[in-house]
């Protein structure tokens, strides 16, 4: 089905269903008639998603649309009173409850609106059905009952299976009125979502506004932290992202990986794509196949929803190359400092005016130095291996320092250089035999971004690295 058709269909369905809802509401004052309806909210959400993305033909596959199905049972609109009565007698309810700490079977069933001694007896005695009583607190349980509380079916997910699916316990009454219990594996449906955001104040304000889940927002930082200092975003910066989500029964169960993104910062466009290298390995690469992990972080200071909060705004980060051959990052005492690339500790201890200082050796004669720390992280000793992003110490004011800040030096053959003025050589790009597969992945993402971009104007230039 084409996207436009899908929308027409959606709109039509919603209209019809809305009439049903109104009809039902008039028929029966009992609030919240359960219904199997693609609700207004769902349509609104779908329209919002398109709105956030910007252009109409966004996703190549219409099945990617985040349509939320609300599972509720609704009597069909009846034409004759006789029919209406029969339908009213057969009303069903689907209720969902989370298992609470200290729940008993009785208290759980009561909240679900189940008033059924036969069902209770079955759950207590059947070896499979008893699994319900072992399900952990926080799990969702759904039950369908008749008007007077007789159980028709009950389902609870009992085990997560990574991104593949859930093992679900299903207890159901068959056509003879007998209960049966079974464990079924329900596959997750993987969807690809696309979102855009504009920077007005900070990254997290923009991601919240674009309804991007927090876990995905954090991945945006990870994806671009070797290109962008997120403390120094500007109004007018923007981003487009593609990420995966996993769904079950019309509900989003979890978010997955940020697959690709582009970020325009201070007039430069950076693009990155996740490339699966097999055997559980993978990483982010620029569109020309260079590993972003093999570059240096733009800011050794940790950027997170917490660190970018109010307290940081009182201590603006200058991050400017200074006469004294370093970059000073003003920050509150105790802010975590991270290794800006993989390497080996060359020095960890007091060194003259630098106070508490760590020096890390990288590749190609590159090294980085971090001064004035209040505290060096415990395991940082000469010879220790560190990974990019690993916390090596905390901001302080030791040595010749007038206030808490990080003094950061980027050195080439032991000589301090302005990291923004030289093009750093990556230690590794993708192997030549990986490139054809990589180009296919990158081209797909480039195509998606091209669809998102027209509204932005075509002036943006790619500064891939
Ligand atoms: Zn300094």
UniProtKB/TrEMBL annotation:
GO cellular component, one term: cell envelope
Required co-factors: Zn(2+)
Residue ranges of every copy of the M23ase beta-sheet core domain listed in the record: 323-419
InterPro entries: Cell_wall_metabolism_enzyme, Csd3_N2, Dup_hybrid_motif, M23ase_b-sheet_dom, NMB0315-like_N
Limits of the DD-carboxypeptidase/endopeptidase Mpg-like N-terminal domain: 95-164
UniProt xrefs under SUPFAM superfamilies: Duplicated hybrid motif
Primary location group: other
GO molecular function: metal ion binding; metalloendopeptidase activity
Gene Ontology biological-process annotations: proteolysis
Keywords: Hydrolase, Membrane, Metal-binding, Metalloprotease, Protease, Transmembrane, Transmembrane helix, Zinc
Residues spanning the membrane: 37-59
Domain of life: Bacteria
Subcellular location: Cell envelope
Keyword Protease assigned: yes
Domain Csd3-like second N-terminal: 195-311
PANTHER family: CELL DIVISION PROTEIN YTFB (PTHR21666:SF288), PEPTIDASE-RELATED (PTHR21666)
Protein name per its UniProtKB record: M23 family metallopeptidase
Taxonomic classification: Bacteria, Pseudomonadati, Pseudomonadota, Betaproteobacteria, Burkholderiales
């Amino acid at each position: 089905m084409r996207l436009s058709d899908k929308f027409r269909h959606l709109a039509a369905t919603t209209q019809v269903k809305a009439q049903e809802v109104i009809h039902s509401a008039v028929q029966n004052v009992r609030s919240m008639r359960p219904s199997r309806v693609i609700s207004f909210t769902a349509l609104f959400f779908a329209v919002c998603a398109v709105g956030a993305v910007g252009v109409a033909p966004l996703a190549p596959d219409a099945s990617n649309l985040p349509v939320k199905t609300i599972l509720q049972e609704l009597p069909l609109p009846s034409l004759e009173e006789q029919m209406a009565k029969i339908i009213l007698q057969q009303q069903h309810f689907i209720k969902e409850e989370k298992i609470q700490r200290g729940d008993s079977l009785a208290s759980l069933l009561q909240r679900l609106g189940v008033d059924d001694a036969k069902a209770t007896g079955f759950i207590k005695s059947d070896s499979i059905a008893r699994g319900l009583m072992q399900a952990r607190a926080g799990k969702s349980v759904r039950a369908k009952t008749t008007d007077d509380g007789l159980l028709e079916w009950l389902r609870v997910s009992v085990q997560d299976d990574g991104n593949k699916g859930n093992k679900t316990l299903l207890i159901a009454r068959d056509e003879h009125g007998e209960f049966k219990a079974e464990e079924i594996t329900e596959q997750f449906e993987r969807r690809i979502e696309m979102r855009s955001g504009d920077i007005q104040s900070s990254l997290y304000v923009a991601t919240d506004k674009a309804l991007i889940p927090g876990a995905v927002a954090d991945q945006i930082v990870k994806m671009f932290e070797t290109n962008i200092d997120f403390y120094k975003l500007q109004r007018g910066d923007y981003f487009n992202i593609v990420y995966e989500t996993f769904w079950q029964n019309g509900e989003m169960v979890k978010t997955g990986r940020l697959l690709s993104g582009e970020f325009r910062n201070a007039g430069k466009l950076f693009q990155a794509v996740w490339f699966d290298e097999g055997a559980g390995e993978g990483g982010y690469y620029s569109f020309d196949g260079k590993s972003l992990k093999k570059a240096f972080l733009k800011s050794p200071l940790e950027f997170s929803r917490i660190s970018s909060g109010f307290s940081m705004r009182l201590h603006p980060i200058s991050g400017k190359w200074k006469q004294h051959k370093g970059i000073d990052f003003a920050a509150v005492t105790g802010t975590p400092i991270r290794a800006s690339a993989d390497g080996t500790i060359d020095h960890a201890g007091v060194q003259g005016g630098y106070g508490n200082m760590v020096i890390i050796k990288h590749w190609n004669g590159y090294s980085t130095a971090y001064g004035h720390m209040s505290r060096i992280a415990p395991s940082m000793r000469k010879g220790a291996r560190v990974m990019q992003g690993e916390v090596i110490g905390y901001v302080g004011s030791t040595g010749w320092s007038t206030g808490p800040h990080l003094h950061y030096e980027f050195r080439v053959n032991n000589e301090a250089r302005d990291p923004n003025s030289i093009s750093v050589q990556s230690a590794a790009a993708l192997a030549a035999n990986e490139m054809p597969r990589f180009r296919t992945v990158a081209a797909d993402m480039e195509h998606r971004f091209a669809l998102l971009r027209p509204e932005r104007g075509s002036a943006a230039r790619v500064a891939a690295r």
